[in-house]
Amino acid sequence: MATFDSITTELIAALEEEINAIKESGGAEQIRVHDGRYGGTAAGRFLYIFLLDTELNIPSDTPAQLCIDKDSHETIILSVQGFEMTLGIQDDLGPFIPKAVLSLSAYYLLEQLQRRLDEIRTGVLPAERDMCMRLFAFQANVSFPNVKPATSLGDLNREQMEAVNRSLGQRVTFIWGPPGTGKTRTIGALVRELVQRGDRVLVTSHTNVAVDTALIPVIKALDDNEIQGGAVVRVGALAREDPELQQVTMEAVLERKSKDLRQQQQALGVERKRVQGVRDQLAATIRVIETVEKSEQLVATAKIALAGAEQKVQEEGNAISQARKTLGDLHSKLQQAEAAGFIRRVFFGFNPEVIRRQIVNQETVITKLEAAYQVAQQERRAASVALSEAEHRQAKDRQALESLGPLPPLPELRQQLGEVEKNLKQLDEQLAAIEARLREMAATVIRDARIVGATLSRLVLLEELYRGTFDTVIIDEASMVPLPNLWFAGSRAQKRVVVTGDFRQLPPIATARDAEKYPLAARWLQTDIFVKAGIVEGRARLDDPRLCALKVQYRMHEAIGEVANMLVYEHDGNPLEHRADPKKYAHATAALPESGEPLVLCTTSGANPWCGRLDPGFSRYNIYSAIVCIRLAARALASGAQNVGLVAPYRAQTRLLQHLVEQYRLPGERVETATVHRFQGNEKDVIIFDLVDSPPFQIGKLLSGGWGSEAMRLFNVACTRAKGKLVIVAHHDYLSQKAPAGDSLATLLQYLEQHGKIMDARMVVQDYADPAVKIALGAVMPARRQLGNPEGATHFNEGNFYPAFLEDLRDAAGEVVIFSPFIAERRLADVITPLRRLVDRGVLVLVVTRERHESNQVTEELIRQLSTIGIKVLRRRGLHEKLAFVDRKIAWFGSLNILSHSRSSEVMIRFSQPELVVRLMELSGTVYLLKQEERRSVQKHRLTELADALKKRMAFPSCPLCGGTTGLRTGKHGPFFGCASFRNGGCKGLINIPRRVLELAVQDLELTCPHCGGKVVLKSGRNGAFLGCSRYPDCRWTDSF
Predict the structure, then answer these.
(1) How many whole angstroms separate alpha carbon 690 and alpha carbon 703?
(2) Where are the beta strands (DSSP E) in 571-683?
(3) DSSP element (H, E) containing 730
(4) Which residues does residue 990 pair with via DSSP β-bridges, in sequence order?
(5) Angle CA(167)–CA(507)–CA(616) in degrees, nearest 5?
(6) Which of 605, 842, 617 is nearest to 732 (CA)?
(7) Residue 15: CB partners within 8 Å, gap ≥ 6?
(8) pLDDT given at position 792
């Protein structure tokens, strides 16, 4: 039986699986952003809107650091809309930031949510346990007795009034608000009624945009006195500048309530600044006096040193004079000795040889004395210079002292400094006390507010919120909210929980999608609260008293609303009724394409475009349909549409579309690009929905499925974002043929055939020979560099392609990569000689072709021959791309199989602009392939070195099965000794390498970490041995053998 504790434990474990999945996927911790423009201020922060290179799934209110060059700034992520990210930054960074890096933890908020859930499970944090159980339908819902229904609810329609009164009368209420049905207006009336009845209300959702949208009608429903008095408080940074929201931010309310305290703080701050100036002046004066005293001591010391040096010079000079006199006497004595006879020499003791030795010794003494005299003179000069410098410094210091005028004695100055510092400390204590009172007042502002608006992330992070209590918690856009967040939000409600949203739109986004690997994440993170609570069991349970269904839509053209009815709401028995004012969308319907038509199917079947797929990965892109979408968007803007949304199922396509938007300089404030998932909750005058899918692939999973599938939800979201015109760009013939009957895709296309206007995409982009294709291909390159139209991009047919291609190969120096789905003998013969020449010169030649076909022995033999001459061949399932890259400087792109086609009408386009070439390599997965090839090469070389190191440590053992020799091999659990005959289908004997021997052999290799330069050591995990950095956990680099 499910209990509060058991469910909470499972939710914590599900979050742990999601965290692990994010870690395994790489978790975007360093995000490059560019073209940041100033967007005003909100809630005390400076708003900056940056462009992204790819879509991100980051919760609102995630903390981060924005790094610009070497400077780092604390940042809050306020919202992510398509390829635009709004940041709230504490510092004013000017009007424009060309580029920056955003550093964050992709799972920080999940870890914080785990902590909060654990606190309510263990009782550290009080929780309304029964409310959570009722919200998730583990306990029966309860009605309040004798609740008087609201009567004066303004201009609400019947369903909206029923939703308000149902919410007042029971513990848990679900309000189903399909697009445009006035859900936020209903929330505003409900909150107003709750406050009048004495409730304290929390309005929350998963994004700042959703919270702001839900809070605006609440603010409008209150009078100005309530607003000014702090009845409503918006906690956290706003996602946009709005006067009504600005006045209810916590900062604005605190500013009003703390006016007197702020004035006192300001006065004390001024006084502190004055006292600090006095303190600095006294300290400077004391330093000058102390400096003068020190310089006088230096002069006295220098004089003593000079006198000593002069005395030493005099002493050394006297010693030299005496030594020279002695030398003269010896010379005289030598003359007498040489002139004397033998008898006289004997009688007087004259020995010329002895005297000569004495002369030599004396000359040596004089040489040493002269050297000492030179040293003494140098020391005297140095002492003289030192004295001069000391006297100069003394004069300068005395001048500085005299400029200060008459001064009291130094002890008296020091006493004054002590008194001033004591006064400064008292002022700091007073300011700290005021700051503490302001912090307490900030908490009081939240506690005293009758209505609090905050994101679910902020509810988890801010103690004043998660320790607070609320009578009613209203959770908007709940179909997108993960269940663990809803569980925690429900635990904060003492009386009731109101859940609003549309369960026929997209569910929460989770990284942990593998149900076998992440069973708890599949159970708790891949479904919405409406399903979990039993509101939806296949179809909506309209008779469930917890559910209030809104059905009158006020947003979109009736024809667009009928698309939603046909796809979704009629099946639930809750079809939309249309009461939108045509004045709100007439200008959009009148815009191009097909002026006056709200539904347009732009078919690309005539051009028969093929889509590509990013590798690694499965996200798809379609260059032709992307160009069509951009041209349609430009025409819509030029013909009266105020704004346009470009949506697609795949991230790769939205990334391509965003680059084209920037390349064609479409106004970013009027054109928004995003996947359907990221566009939920948004709306535009015109929506251009690119289905992308086309040959050679089957219809993707995102577009597959019938009523109730995620594909149905995706179509519902995409179509209902449009107010006045919905344009769907699709390969109609292909999709109609491939989509099974009953699938939402087939149903949508059939409906558009009957009720929409069909136009041929070739009226916009004729075919691949259209000059715009060449320009648009350049637009997929980095938007941060305004490259303009690519130069040197030229069309080739088969007749002139090969001479040009072989000319490019001739000058290759680094690498050549060829994507050719098929390989034929005749065509390969034309290019094999230059390719082999490149291999012999050390150039990497990589051929990517389709998977192995044993029935085609000719092709397999050709591939074997390529391998034997050093050309690396990779096999890719379902390959259809026709590409070639030379030294990352030249790219060939088109429809010609380079290694097989002959006598065909296919074409190729050549690019010679390095920036474009590198970007195309990234888009096609070639950069990834080269990195993988480089990694394999490194691992192979490292394995050879490891084998040599092991041989020095031990003898390779014999095979335990056949007695034959063994060699070093690797498997998923690391290196081992395997029988040498294994590769020929023989013996499968193996022996594990002793752990200590393997560890020492790795040490012998003296490998260094490529990330931080640390030492590489042997590591062990659940999958066996691997290499890791010795600086773990500071450095998390790892590699397999």
Answers:
(1) 12
(2) 577-578, 599-603, 612-613, 620-621, 644-648, 671-675
(3) strand 722-730
(4) 978
(5) 165
(6) 605
(7) 110, 113, 114, 117, 484, 525
(8) 47
- Which residue type sits at 460? V
The span from the CA of 81 to the CA of 219, in Å, is 25
In terms of phi and psi (left: phi > 0; alpha: psi -120 to 50; beta: otherwise), the region of 591 is: beta
What beta strand segments (E) does 851-1007 contain?
872-876, 882-886, 890-894, 907-911, 966-971, 974-979, 990-992
E strand spans, 676-721: 684-690
Two tokens at 87?
């940041």
pLDDT over 90 percentage in the chain? 41
β-pair type (907-911, 794-797): antiparallel
CA distances from 487 to 379, 536, 640, 901 (A): 85, 18, 46, 61
Ranges of H-type helices in 874-967: 914-924, 926-953
Beta-strand relationship, 684-690 and 722-730: parallel
202, pLDDT greater than 90: yes
pLDDT at 145 over 60: yes
Q: Let me know how long the chain is.
A: 1041
What span, in angstroms and rounded, lies between the C-alpha atoms of 270 and 247? 28
Question: What number of other Cβ atoms are within 10 A of residue 207's Cβ?
Answer: 25
The reported pLDDT for the residue numbered 585 is 94
Distance, C-alpha 140 to centroid of its chain: 43
Phi-psi region of 1006 (alpha: psi -120 to 50; beta: other; left: phi over 0): left
CA dist 52 and 99 (Å) reads 10
DSSP 566: I
Distance CA 40, CA 46 (A): 6
- CA angle centred on 361, ends 357 and 367, rounded to 5°: 145
The most distant pair of C-alpha atoms in the chain lies apart, rounded to whole Å, by: 155
Q: How far lies 702's CA from each of 212, 316, 525, 613, 880, in Å? A: 30, 101, 18, 14, 21
Q: What is the pLDDT at residue 789?
A: 32
Q: Share the mean pLDDT of the chain.
A: 86
Amino acid (1-letter code) at residue 1041: F
Strand, helix or coil for residue 921: helix
The tokens describing 225, both together, are 């006195």
Two tokens, residue 455: 């994101």
For 1019, the enclosing helix (H) or strand (E) is strand 1016-1021
Tokens of 62: 């995630």
Q: Is the dihedral of CA 347, 348, 352, 355 positive or negative?
A: positive
Over its C-alpha atoms, the chain yields an Rg (Å, rounded) of 42
Q: Find where tokens 């692939």 sit.
A: 697
What pLDDT, on a 0 to 100 scale, did the predictor assign at position 780?
Answer: 39
For residues 128 and 8, give the distance between their C-alpha atoms in angstroms, rounded to a whole number.
Answer: 13
CA 497 to chain CA centroid, Å, is: 34
In order of their start, the domains of the chain are: 28-105 (2.40.30), 126-231+449-550 (3.40.50.300), 267-420 (1.10.287.620), 597-776 (3.40.50.300), 792-924 (3.30.870.10), 945-1039 (no CATH)
Query: In whole angstroms, what is the distance from residue 483 CA to residue 742 CA?
Result: 31
Residue 407, phi-psi category: left (phi > 0), alpha (psi -120 to 50), beta (remainder): beta
Read off the pLDDT of residues 57-82 as tens digits, 9 standing for 90 and up. Answer: 677 778 888 888 878 888 888 877 76
Which residues face 975 on adjacent strands? 970
Rounded to whole angstroms, the Cα distance separating 17 from 519 reads: 9
Residue 1033, exposed/middle/buried by CB under 10 A (0-12, 13-18, 19+)? exposed
Unique residue bearing structure tokens 């659940």: 1022
As a whole number, mean pLDDT of residues 387-400 equals 90
Is residue 1 a contact partner of residue 491, using CB atoms and an 8 Å limit?
A: no
Residues 988, 982 contacting (CB under 8 angstroms): yes
| Helix, strand counts (H, E) of the chain | 33, 38
Neighbours of 666 (CB within 10 A): 18
Q: Which residue has the tokens 């028969």?
A: 608
Nearest residue to 361 via CA among 318, 323, 335, 334: 323
